[in-house]
Amino acid sequence: MERRKFLKTSLSYGAATGASFVFLDRGIPGQGAAKNVKERIEKVKLAMLTMQRHAWEQGVAAQALLEMEETELVILMAKEAALRQLEDGRLAVISANQGVTDPAANGEPVLYAAKITGDPSLQKAAEGMLDYLLHKAPKTKEGTLYHIANKPQVWIDSMYMAPPFIAVAGHPDEALKQIEGFRKLLWNPEKKLFSHIWDDSINDFERKDFWGVGNGWAAAGMSRVIKALPKKMTEEKKRLIGYVRDVIDGCLAFQRQDGLFHDVVDNPKTFVEANLAQMLAYSIYRGLQGGWLDPSYSKHAERMRKAAHEKVDEYGLVQDVCGAPTFELPGTATEGQAFFLLMEAAASAG
After folding, report:
1. Which terminal residue of the chain has fewer beta carbons within 10 Å of its beta carbon, N or C?
2. Which helix (H) or strand (E) holds 207?
3. CATH number for the domain running over 32-349
């Protein structure tokens, strides 16, 4: 797994109307006319589609296309994820990979493609992924999903990878159980931030740092679950809303003047990173759209969105995100491209 160099040793839906995403300019100071912004979005999408992708990267890219209502592209991405499914049900695995929850990032796009096409092979692929999470995946003694198969570790990344798909696939109680499990191990109530990695084998943190992108995964994942929960689960939604608001507020307490954050949110010695801003802006826009965030958060989302647009280069690459392939230096990454698109889809829907 190539999420970070230091780990090498440890080894809902938009309308099904095709490419019908409608860009609505919400005003990006200094960025020119809406036409130029729309062109930038297309460049970011094209650049994302050229990138090599591991399982979670395929999934977050497909999710971005799903929320942009790019139906044909979602179907194609889903077919590729299903083509590279392991016998145990994990989707989009392209190499020897220890990821437990990463493949589940493909689950919602594959399930959506199955419903749109009526293709039984895609339905079977989605069911296989769900069965793996529910019955085969390694977990803590409390039933919380581990993030990798070869070490008993819980990562905050999993908050985005698994619960949204589990909820959309008809198991909202299990999705909530997973969120509570991740939160119990990784949430720091004083800082209002999530630590990155808990390791059961040492009964301690493998990485206690408040990784920015990790907190972005948490906010975005829980925001998607809020939308996926049945209407009757009002108390559960309220609880999740509080969780999302807490992590957004926790991050905003450390926001820089330029609208961005440090790679480790509370450590100014770490590099300045662009993807957390996109992830939080996405979460805020979804909260505003859903009516569960106060309108006062809008100004924060717009500030972060402006900062993200300023990071897009002439080729459509979002620069200075936590960069592939080691994710320990500023660079470019599929997830950085995808969250720019997710942010724009959410901004246009709000």
Report:
1. C
2. strand 204-207
3. 1.50.10.10
